[in-house]
Specification:
This protein is mostly helical and 201 residues long. The protein contains six helices and four strands, in the order αααααββαββ.
Length: 201
C-alpha cells in the first residue's frame, strides 16, 4: 500500500512539474507570439476577402494603401471599356445602317457611299468597318484587362498573407568564413580548403 501511494505521489509531482514548465513557457512568450499561436494570419481569408470585395484582402493584411491603387486600376480600365464600347457601337450602327438595306434586297452595298459617324461625315464604308473592328478589339482587351486585374488583386492578397509572418528582423544574418576539411585516411595530404556560409535565424 505504501508503494502504491508513493507511486501515485510521484506521478502527481511529475505532472505538476510538467504543467508548471508549460505554463512558464507560455508566459515567457511575447504577447504577439501568444496571439499568433491562438490565431494565425490566414492566406485563404485574405484571398476570399479580395474575391468578394477587391482590396479588402489588402486591408486585412495591413496594406491599406494598396486599396486605392486597386480601385484606380479598375476605374482606368473601366473608363477604357466605356470609351471603346461607345465608339464601337457608333461605328457598328453606322455600318449596319448602310449595309443592311442592300443585303435585305439581295444587293451588294456600293463602295462609293459616304457615311457619317458621330456627327462627322466623310467616312468610306471600308473605313467605318475598320473603325468598328478596331474599337471592338480594344473593348475586348479592356474586358480581359479587368479580369486580369481582378485576379491580380486576389493573388496579391494571398501572397502577401503567406509572407505576413515571415521574419525580416535584423537577427537574420549570413556569414562566411574560411574552412578546412579533413581527408580520411590521407595523413600526409594537405587539408583541402574552402568557404563556409552560415545563416542565423
Amino acid at each position: 500500500m505504501q508503494k502504491f501511494l508513493l507511486c501515485c505521489l510521484s506521478c502527481i509531482l511529475a505532472y505538476s512539474v510538467f504543467a508548471q514548465q508549460n505554463i512558464t513557457t507560455l508566459q515567457g512568450l511575447p504577447s504577439d507570439s501568444a496571439s499568433s499561436v491562438e490565431k494565425k494570419h490566414s492566406p485563404q481569408t485574405a484571398a476570399l476577402l479580395s474575391t468578394f470585395i477587391p482590396g479588402s484582402g489588402q486591408i486585412y493584411n495591413g496594406s491599406w494603401w494598396k486599396t486605392p491603387i486597386i480601385y484606380a486600376g479598375f476605374g482606368g480600365i473601366g473608363y477604357g471599356l466605356y470609351f471603346y464600347q461607345d465608339y464601337y457601337k457608333s461605328f457598328k450602327t453606322a455600318y449596319n445602317d448602310y449595309r443592311d438595306p442592300f443585303l435585305e434586297q439581295g444587293l451588294t452595298p456600293p463602295n462609293d457611299t459616304i457615311l457619317t459617324v458621330r456627327g462627322q461625315t466623310g467616312y468610306s464604308p471600308s473605313a467605318v468597318q475598320q473603325g468598328r473592328d478596331y474599337y471592338r478589339k480594344y473593348r475586348d482587351l479592356c474586358i480581359i484587362g479587368i479580369g486580369v486585374w481582378y485576379l491580380a488583386n486576389i493573388l496579391d492578397a494571398y501572397v502577401e498573407a503567406q509572407l505576413f509572418e515571415f521574419d525580416v528582423s535584423d537577427d537574420l544574418t549570413i556569414q562566411w568564413q574560411p574552412a578546412y576539411f579533413s581527408t580520411y585516411g590521407a595523413t600526409s595530404a594537405p587539408l583541402p580548403s574552402g568557404v563556409r556560409f552560415s545563416m542565423q535565424f
